[in-house]
Amino acid sequence: MNHPINLSGFWLKIGVLLSVFVLTYANTMAMIFQTWTSRDDYSHGALVPFIAFYLAWKKRYRFRQFAIFPQVAGGLTVLTLSGVMLLLGTTGGVISVQQLSVLTAIPGLIWMLLGTQYLKQLILPLVYLPLMVPVLLDPVITHIRWPFQLITAKYAGVLLKIIGISVFQNAQYLELPNITLEVADICSGVNYFVSIIAVAVPLAFLTQQGWKPRSFLLFFAIFVGILANIVRVTLIGIWTYYTGSSIVHGPFHIFQGLFVSTFGFVSLFLAAWVMAKKLSSKNNPDNDRVSTSIPTYNLKRFQKAWITAMVVLMSTAGLVYSYTPHPVPLNNELNSLPKTIGQWKGTDSSVKGYPYRAPGADHEMVRTYTNPSGQSITLYIGYFESQRQNKELINYKLSALYEEAKGLELPIAGNDSISVNKTMVRDGARNIALVYWYDLNGEVVANPYMAKLLTSLDGLANGWTNGAIVIVHSYIDDNDFSIALDRQRDFIQNLYPLLHSLLSS
Length: 505
Hints:
Blueprint: E1 3-4, H1 7-24, H2 26-38, H3 48-57, H4 60-63, H5 72-92, H6 95-113, H7 116-121, H8 123-128, H9 138-162, E2 168-170, E3 173-175, E4 180-182, H10 193-207, H11 211-243, H12 258-279, E5 296-297, H13 299-322, E6 340-341, E7 344-348, E8 363-370, E9 376-384, H14 399-402, E10 406-411, E11 417-427, E12 430-440, E13 443-445, H15 448-462, E14 467-475, H16 481-503
Antiparallel strand pairs: 1-5, 2-3, 3-4, 6-7, 7-8, 8-9, 9-14, 10-11, 11-12, 12-13, 12-14
Helix pairs in contact: 1-13, 2-6, 5-6, 5-13, 5-15, 9-11, 10-11, 10-12, 11-12
């Protein structure tokens, strides 16, 4: 039987539960905060929880229409799933899985404690929350960055021609008479779309009425983001053409990526103001005081949901804080790898200058091998005795390897083969053919997500998270990627048996 809520007792239980939730996810929240302070494109993240709370607060009078009807079974399923993700993310040092766990736990708690009607009313704030973390958006941004580089280069070139500056566009390059500009991946502008959209969503729902004007404002935000970056690159072209300055981003670096979000914010607020003036003549219906009564609930059902949520969160916290991975040292040092592999003769090189080294690796080796024809291949191995946060086999600092990588099957001894990744990266004016894979106790994995998953499962089941990344690369002097890959294939076929025994701990 439902009764009016005892507000003091209700909020006391919610406060205790929130405290346990914060304790459980303290490390994950600290890493989210670090993302906000270390990445310009997510500097808006600190505002997202407050905006989401305000969007929920706007519906506070509507909530009073519905009785609180906890869904213990459904909420328990979601909350347990989020706890498993937190454990997997912790054992494998996978920030994205931990972030996803937070985003899953919040609706799980709402569903468990308040019920389906409340969950439906809070869809907008919950859908808005992922804008504070890169877990869901970074994979999308990675795949659209290259098309946006080309779009920016193309239309910036058009604008430069219109104002009388001679320019030739070659893919992402703009060749001016006195300088060649590259619209690099970080200059594609898409990184700052997240900030613009993060502002556009609450602005659309708080200043506009109906889905049409709200949708228009959101699409306008995307358009402005694209236009702002085109204008930015055009201004860089004008600046470098007429001044000859080597500081391509202009005085005080005003033409850097932050220009995109600033331009976008100003345009967005102006558009919202104009649309609100012309299209909005009524009060926002979300502000209507639909009911001033106190919601009702079934006390026994709510207490059962609350106790269940407390048990799940405290159990998860206990497992997270008690977990400690066991380091797995190598049986032999990496330098024990033979310097003669087939027809290839090796010479050790400095690790410090290697551009694709794995941050935090416990053991590293860089060696350049040369064949009788004078062609060279560089081998890098980075081995982790264990992984933890900020000391991971798969690190965002190696994103240049991941973005354009494709799978490749390499035959080895007998009829066996291994799955690796192939890609081509740019080093100044030269291209590099690059093959890499992950070795987890002798098991070769190409897919980074699979490597993270296996590391997490090993951590949970066995208490170890060791692994290595192996990179083989060579310059494409003959401008033929396939020829370079053939040389690397021959080298890896001779290398793999030796490497397999070295890294199988």
